[in-house]
């Protein structure tokens, strides 16, 4: 994947920018004017830095047009334009005032790069079905919510709720990458949601990051898994589904979508598992007849959109 491209106005010194480029995490192009929509390589993530005195901030539609394809960060301070900036603030990934400390600038730049990467994933997803247009718009709004939420438990709940809604999943769970007692990365089971069995207790446990489990394989390879029936996984697949939880709870897992949560630097920070996609999202799965009637495989459309959400979630959860 191409590294993200940051469009920086000539003459502006931006703290932390050199660190990103030196590490190979982004490429910078100096510009003398605002990029036009036709100038963007839509197969690449973009971040545009725009001085707040620029005329574009006087027009919600102009800012929205850029924000539809790139992360946008406002540069500098202009008290006379505070009202205009407030009007478009929800479309911005952040603001960098004159004299912003380097660490704060780094975090703001990372937020903008995450948004640019999310929009790239959403563009790719939208090609599969015109119905995705509404989902792509909502992804942008979800991105704003993710970028402002600081409580980890609330953030994870938002991520999983939105992923289940988009994919019409009855249940789901999130694993986070943590360090074990030896300092090695491992997956910790952190959250579960289940529409049909909402009172299921959460018991945290850890999984190794290897191909013996679905979540471990996903975290190891950074590849999504879409499985029609986890009870029917056949060789040569290296992973298997552990039926122990199903046997303890009486809940039957059938179709599953497993997606890595990555930062914009392609570092895995967790895994989202979605379980039992349903024809009717309000349906309760209480027996085998319900399962046979309601549960269907996850499709390409839902996979692509949840992957776009996971790219947002990866950066947000890392904070």
Please, could you describe this protein's structure?
With about 325 residues, this protein is an alpha/beta fold. The protein is built from ten helices and twelve strands. The chain has helices at about 15-20, 60-65, 80-90, 100-125, 130-150, 150-165, 215-220, 245-250, 290-295, 300-319; strands at about 5-10, 25-30, 45-50, 70-75, 95, 170-180, 185-195, 205-210, 225, 255-260, 270-280, 295. The strands form two sheets. Strands 6, 7, 8, 9, 10, 11 and 12 form a seven-stranded antiparallel beta sheet that branches. Strands 2-1-3-4-5 form a five-stranded parallel beta sheet. Helix 4 packs antiparallel against helix 5 and helix 5 (about 130-150) packs parallel to helix 10 (about 300-319).
Annotation keywords:
319 residues, alpha/beta, Rossmann fold, Beta-Lactamase, 7-stranded antiparallel beta sheet, 5-stranded parallel beta sheet, 12 strands, elongated
Briefly say what this structure is:
With 319 residues, this protein is an alpha/beta fold.
What's the layout of helices and strands?
Layout: E1 5-9, H1 17-22, E2 27-31, E3 46-51, H2 60-67, E4 71-75, H3 82-88, E5 94-96, H4 102-126, H5 132-148, H6 152-167, E6 169-179, E7 185-194, E8 206-208, H7 214-221, E9 225-227, H8 244-249, E10 256-262, E11 268-278, H9 288-294, E12 295-296, H10 300-318
Parallel strand pairs: 1-2, 1-3, 3-4, 4-5
Antiparallel strand pairs: 6-7, 6-11, 7-8, 9-10, 10-11, 11-12
